[in-house]
Amino acid sequence: MNRRDVLKLGGMALGGAGASRVLAQAGMHMASASDAVPQAKADFELRIAPVQVELAPSRILSTIGYNGTAPGPLLRRRAGKPVTVDIVNETDTPELVHWHGMLIPAEADGTEEEGSPYVPPHGRARVTFTPGPAGLRWYHSHAMAMDDLRKGAYSGQFGMVYVEDGKDRGAYDQEHFLALRDWEPFFSSQMDDDDDDTHDGPMLEKPPEMNNDPDGLEVSSTTYSINDKALGAGEPIHVKEGQRLLLHLCNASAIENRRIALAGHSLRVVSLDGNAVPRPQSVDSLFLGAGERASVEVTMNHPGVWILGSTEKTVREQGLGVVVEYAGQHKTPQWVNPKKAPWDYSVFGTGTPTQPAPKNVIDMTFQKLPRAQGKFNVWTVNGKPYPHENEFVLQRGERYRLIMRNWSDDAHPMHLHRHLWELVEMSGKPMGGLIKDTVVVPYYGRAVVDFTADQPGLSLFHCHIQQHMDYGFKALFRYA
Question: Which domains does the chain have, with CATH numbers?
Answer without folding.
Answer: 3-164 (2.60.40.420), 174-185+221-343 (2.60.40.420), 360-479 (2.60.40.420)
